[in-house]
Amino acid sequence: MKTNIMAIIMLSFFISSVLVPQTKLKYPLTQKDDIKDNYFGTIVPDPYRWLENDTASAVKQWVKEENKVTFNYLDKIPYREKIKARLEKLWNYPKYSAPFKAGKNYFFFKNDGLQNQAVLYVQDGLNAKPEVFLDPNNLSKDGTVSLSSYAPSKDGKYFAYGTASGGSDWNEFHVMDVATKKVLRDRLKWIKFSGIAWFKDGFFYSRYPTPAKGEELTSKNEFHKVYYHKLGTEQSSDSLIYENLSQPKLTIGAQTTEDERLLILYLSTGTSNNALYVQNLEKPGSPVLKVIDNYDHNYSVVDNIGDKLLVLTDKNAPKYQLVLIDPENPGETNWQTIIPEKNDVLQSVSVIGGKLVAIYMKDASNRMFMYNLSGNNEEEIKLPVLGTIESLSGKRNNNIAFYDFTSFTFPPTIYELNVKDNSSTIFRKPEINFNFDNYITKQVFYNSKDGTKVPMFIVYKKGLKRNGNNPAFLYAYGGFDISINPAFSITRLIFLENGGVLAIPNIRGGGEYGEAWHTAGMLGKKQNVFDDFIAAAEYLIKEKYTSSQKLAINGASNGGMLIGAVTNQRPDLFRIAIPQVGVQDMLRFQKFTIGWAWVNEYGSSDDSAQFQYLYKYSPLQNIRSGVNYPAIMATTADHDDRVVPAHSFKYIATLQDKYKGNNPILIRIETRAGHGAGKPTSKIIDEWTDIWSFIFYNLGVKTIY
Questions:
Q1: DSSP-assigned letters across all residues of 2-44
Q2: Which of 408, 443, 447, 441 is closest to 539 using CA atoms?
Q3: What is the pLDDT of residue 280?
């Protein structure tokens, strides 16, 4: 059997054009220091800690040398430029967002095709001629300054927006006059993890203290505070609305109800579960009422009905329910259930045209229903295929709303919804030079190691022969209550049209089946996530979609950690691993930027019990000598202040030191880029050109180009 497999592998290498010889690469000699930490009696070496200092000249030189090795390798792949050309051709079509209304105007984003950033347009009514309102492409020559957040004032007179530079999470807020399109003198800095909550002639927002010079991208983010900014004033005169100096590790967000009657404050010690406070803005000097004063569950205010709050929560409802809460009498016995918990996950609720529009998730795909304000079910809003509603925008006093629907082979299509008669019609449909009818999307269910049934989407070209010799791309996330729903990706079309099998399992740790699914993959149960992913790979191989020698795996951020962990645990199961911006050092993640907020999800090495399970799976600390690792290319960016690049730096340095085989161990380090948000089109195309080139070459794929 082994002989036959090797014959197939050698044949595929022979027919896939001229390939770069797979000999061991010469990597930069990375300095090792004698640094060791004592974790409750366990001594853990950390020889590459110096790579955590991302601004040091020695680290910058290391980055330069590693990139030289990586790009020398990629430059020798003969079809790399053809992949880039095909990506650019696929990408080059107009892309629109769903319109959203403020005052008499509608706003929407449009990218003509290959623009680095989408342009914001405004029009006086849906039938008026659109005009350019804000073009982020003019904010920088290389497209690395992006629009990160935005909100028009409720009357539509002003438009506040945030910009991020080089992919950083740090924002600057600005304001434009909608009628004149002039940028006002307001400029707010050191904003991170903040919305824009309008109230009268200003808005509420959240910011951190100014960081020390040189530590902007690595220092801990602590002492989040909510301020109110009045238009036309300096930031230094902004009013402090709420702070909690006794708990520096809190994120505090602000929201106002659509009628600007109430201020909502969300307080969280991590990435899920929050306290909920409210203040009546109609009564100056009114106290901040503590509606929910613990961090045991999730609470999200949909809107208000008078002085009461419509709240989406998983309290006593792991799959969520909608309740009405009186802030003056917030006790749970006083709650009124509007939409009770059901078998499917209640993902979101919006008040549109005097109705409640509810989006549910069933086996990781969406369904949409309409209720009256009392919660009585009226009817389902039919969706075209198995897919995902990516956005829904509407007003409580307007019958017309818009939603953006997509699936793996269903490009984002904007629908106009009239809640008065429940009619849903196509408003804008993209035109892409790709025959989607040639592809199949199916959903299967497989058993994980402990018998848990896990769903997985599989996408491939019609006529695929399940002979175990197809290239396959397995992607997952598995954490932070984030659901991976069917979504369109231009970059993946490259793989599909070259005979690839795309597989996306909805592993535990996500929110696909509510909070119970999430908690089954967090803290000490994180191994369930890895087991689910490994079982997905085994299913694809067993069902002959692919083989271990034809399987590439990928994940980003928390998903990058997943890839690092499963590669350590089952290096025999995969041919290629692409961990992107991954959390690879599970013993030190909490020491940088917002990493402390992930402790609720992961645990912390500062706790003796939690250290034990983190140490057992942490990708960095579990790299072993004498193991035949697959071909690996990690990706990160120099401005990533979400998951600092040191995670990937130390991970690759350790692999390059311990792995002695011939498979490439590379790191691709992007400059003037961050965790992913706001990345310009040109950099996205370049990155995925290199990822697919690396994958095609190491899988022996014969491209059609």
A1: HHHHHHHHHHHHHHS-S-----------------EEEETTEEE
A2: 447
A3: 96
Number of domains in the chain: 2
Going by C-beta distance under 8 Å and a sequence separation of 6 or more, which residues neighbour residue 696? 16, 77, 79, 83, 471, 498, 703
Amino acid occupying residue 603: G
**Token reading at 263:** 């201020």
What burial letters (b/e) apply to 540-579, b meaning 16+ CB within 10 Å? bbeeebbbbbbbbbbbbbbbbbbbbbbbbbbbebbbbbbb
Q: Are 44 and 654 in contact (CB under 8 A)?
A: no
Phi, psi (rounded to 5 degrees) for 371: -125, 160
64 Cβ neighbours under 8 A, 6+ residues apart: none
Count of CB atoms within 10 A of residue 528's CB?
Answer: 22
Please say which residue of 430, 463, 494 terminates a domain: 430
Tell which of 373, 407, 430 closes a domain: 430
Q: What is the mean pLDDT of residues 677-698?
A: 93
Q: Which two tokens stand for residue 36?
A: 């060791």
- What domain range is 502 assigned to? 24-89+434-699
- pTM for this predicted structure: 0.92
Please give the positions annotated as active site: 557, 675
- Per-residue pLDDT tens digits for 494-525: 999 999 999 999 999 999 999 999 999 999 99
